[in-house]
From TrEMBL:
Entry keywords, A to Z: Amino-acid biosynthesis, Aromatic amino acid biosynthesis, Cytoplasm, Isomerase, Lyase, Multifunctional enzyme, Phenylalanine biosynthesis
Domain ACT: 276-354
Record gene name: pheA
Chorismate mutase domain mapped to chain residues: 1-87
Protein name per the record: Bifunctional chorismate mutase/prephenate dehydratase
Keyword Amino-acid biosynthesis in record: yes
UniProt site (Essential for prephenate dehydratase activity): T254
One function term, GO molecular function aspect: prephenate dehydratase activity
């Protein structure tokens, strides 16, 4: 192989790629300005998902589908930043898994704003201090993030997207494993590492903190203390990794939601959307079964059901469901009409691309 020759070819391709990327950005900017003039949002999750789907169908490798997504995510993110400085509020502080999820969804060019609690993410978007918000909703090992569910029941904001993030927990400390007497983290992270902690640090005190990052900051200052957090936090706070991948399940994943003042306008396509809904039922024999039958008789696939106290009256519950399909699908509208005739509360939380 003649290295100079190959490098010349690479240089020529790079020139072509840059020209074509900028052409794409100029066209998308035109669309963005037209949308802005019509009072529409510049960021359209369902259209982006269609673009990603189309790219995977034409990609012949060697790049993976995921790599192509990353590249285009960044191109679109940079275009949006040129047109409108969108602000994204997320559950902070900086370095949390929620920040990683937000960046995975919006790319690195937007304006990220860490806030101290899930309630603050909602209020930032409700007060239009931020354009979008990102919150954790459930973990594949630890289950629901109940604070997020409770907030969704109350808010007028809508879910417009979801992000799945593999979560690999690490034990971070300036002390050796044998010297650690206290482990701090967010309750969810402690739950996800329960068996590992039982086997390796059975006598260490476990302390629940507001965030994984808060636990790391504490561990940097207190010998004998460790934090459970992601590898990114270890780099950011210059604290050694004592152990890596300590979550009890290797396939540990957290699902995050993107929330916005307005719902998505369009559908991604047949079989490509997911809908979230909350409902309540009367205290009657078979009331819950009747609701579930409204879905099953129409072949609507429920992917999740979660119940929470209503917080309005003792022993009354709200049921949160996710199902395949879009709110505007005629079959789904039929099911919703049935729910409306028997449930005291039926509230649409949003329809969004069902992407991983
Ligand atoms: O198709 C649009 O509506 C665009 O604005 C273009 C585009 C893109 O670059 O492909 C840009 C931003 C949106 O979030 C979705 C798609």
């Amino acid at each position: 192989m003649d290295l100079d020759d190959v490098r010349q070819k690479i240089d020529a391709i790079d020139r072509e790629i840059i020209t074509r990327i900028n052409e794409r950005v100029r066209l998308a900017s035109e669309v963005a300005r037209a949308k802005h003039a019509a009072g529409l949002p510049i960021y359209i999750p369902e259209r982006e998902e269609q673009v990603f789907q189309k790219l995977s169908s034409i990609n012949e490798g060697p790049l993976t589908e995921q790599a192509i997504r990353h590249i285009y995510r960044e191109v679109i993110s940079a275009m949006i930043a040129l047109e409108q400085p969108l602000k994204i509020a997320y559950l902070g502080p900086e370095g949390t898994y929620t920040e990683q999820a937000a960046r995975k969804n919006f790319g690195s060019s937007l304006d990220y704003h860490a806030v101290p609690s899930i309630a603050d993410v909602f209020s930032e978007v409700e007060r239009r201090e931020a354009d979008y918000g990102v919150i954790p909703i459930e973990n594949s090992t630890g289950g629901a993030v109940i604070h997020s569910l409770d907030m969704l029941a109350e808010t007028e904001l809508k879910i417009i997207g979801q992000v799945y993030l593999p979560v690999e927990h690490c034990l971070l400390s300036h002390s050796k494993l044998s010297e650690i007497t206290e482990v701090r983290s967010k309750d969810q992270a402690l739950i996800q590492c329960r068996d590992w902690l039982q086997r390796n640090l059975p006598n260490a005190k476990q302390i629940d903190c507001d965030s994984t990052t808060g636990a790391v900051v504490h561990a940097t200052k207190n010998p004998g203390t460790a934090a459970i957090a992601g590898e990114i936090a270890a780099e950011r706070y210059s604290i050694p990794l004592v152990a890596k991948g300590i979550q009890d399940r290797k396939d540990n994943e957290t699902r995050f939601l993107v929330i916005a003042p307005e719902p998505n306008n369009g559908q991604t396509g047949p079989g490509l959307d997911k809908t979230s809904l909350v409902f309540s039922i009367h205290h009657e024999v078979g009331a819950l079964e009747k609701v579930l039958r409204s879905f099953s008789t129409r072949q609507i696939n429920l992917s999740k059901i979660e119940s929470r106290p209503s917080r309005k009256k003792a022993w009354e519950y709200l049921f949160f469901v996710d199902f395949d399909g879009h709110w505007n699908d005629p079959t789904i509208q039929e099911a919703i009409a049935e729910l409306n005739s028997s449930c005291p509360l039926v509230k649409w939380l949003g329809s969004y691309p069902n992407s991983r």
